[in-house]
């Protein structure tokens, strides 16, 4: 029997990271990418500390570290006049707690580094699109655009928001469950469009209106927002997000260069400081692209031997910079499960694989839902969608919420991110397992404490006026016990 093999449709963030992780685990794979590896779309990506830990485990971080600068500060500006209304060091606090930096990188460069680290390049087929797949009792066979067929044990759809693997999977599901297939096809909606770009900056110019490499500008408009940061010495990364009507993804348009020009004609005056505008970045762009900003989580991520990972399974709005980081979590979670399964059963059955996919869904879905909520709230806040969000951004957040508290809101999510558990942890994280276990126990105890407190208040209200013996109230004790059990259940 041939060794277990994972076929991967899509050679971008998910496809290449998965290939690297599988290679590290000694699992066979083959990647199919319909275009070139690391195309220039004008895109950049913020990598969060929890993802950097995974890149370090994969041996990639050492090639990235010298070329990026750690983000520390968020400067919040008014889009109309460029006035700064808040400065926060919340990113520095996040990096301090998670022990790894937080930074922007040109997306193309990240993909090139991931690709460079894959040892066996013959397993990565660029300019080769997956056009379909067929499942058999003992495996899955994909057909590619050049007419070739490849056999594997599992097929991973890492082919993005317009995934062909998801489309074929949905078509197979429609034969037995039409309603589910429709839900899968209509999983994404769009309420915003995003114009993003990379521009040149002159390293010798003073550029006082641009952030330094450690700062992100968050520009707040009325139903639109912008993000600008620099990547020393000579690049500027920028994004403009504009609220549109809500549309179902399968009806969203693909935008043209004329559409992007029309957006700049209308929003180019967005202020990036006194007397400086977004148009200046547009005029010095290397490349800029206008896209719909989809949001949604596909109801079912697997079928038979096929699993969706990354944007093909869940897509979140861009402002919080979470989509790619969530995708890296998915790769990590899935690879951890697969490595453990293959250790036990080198030739797993279809039912073993189904259990693996279900387990992955159980753990990762709730993380995707939280990431989606954080992202949507960030997008709405930065576009000041309501008067309350505007008031909160201008008067509550700068004056009444500390940087630690702002970081804490995000850390509650980020601290539970997975790492590759078949690769040693980096030395600075040697105590991570212990630390996480202590935090889990601590948060379980505090939940039990809160439940007991609530039960005690309830008891107080129930006591007869003449006084009563709580210890003798067996129903009360039963309620305390069941409160603890319920709390324990919640904290699992
Ligand atoms: C402008 C912008 C900024 C973003 N910024 C951030 C950020 O700061 N932080 C963050 O965490 N996330 C960010 N994201 C989200 C992040 O980029 C995505 O979540 C991430 O790229 C998802 O990776 P993926 O591999 O699943 O999909 P993709 O990156 O979309 O890759 C899919 C790949 O599949 C290929 N493909 C498609 N069809 C086929 C086929 N039939 N056969 C073979 N190959 C195929 C495509 O060519 C592509 O290379 C941003 C997204 C955008 C658009």
TrEMBL record:
<dbReference type="Pfam" id="PF01494">
    <property type="entry name" value="FAD_binding_3"/>
</dbReference>
<dbReference type="InterPro" id="IPR036188">
    <property type="entry name" value="FAD/NAD-bd_sf"/>
</dbReference>
<dbReference type="GO" id="GO:0071949">
    <property type="term" value="F:FAD binding"/>
</dbReference>
<dbReference type="GO" id="GO:0004497">
    <property type="term" value="F:monooxygenase activity"/>
</dbReference>
<dbReference type="InterPro" id="IPR050562">
    <property type="entry name" value="FAD_mOase_fung"/>
</dbReference>
<keyword id="KW-0732">Signal</keyword>
<keyword id="KW-0285">Flavoprotein</keyword>
<feature type="signal peptide">
    <location>
        <begin position="1"/>
        <end position="19"/>
    </location>
</feature>
<protein>
    <recommendedName>
        <fullName>FAD-binding domain-containing protein</fullName>
    </recommendedName>
</protein>
<keyword id="KW-0560">Oxidoreductase</keyword>
<dbReference type="InterPro" id="IPR002938">
    <property type="entry name" value="FAD-bd"/>
</dbReference>
<keyword id="KW-0274">FAD</keyword>
<comment type="similarity">
    <text>Belongs to the paxM FAD-dependent monooxygenase family.</text>
</comment>
<feature type="domain" description="FAD-binding">
    <location>
        <begin position="5"/>
        <end position="352"/>
    </location>
</feature>
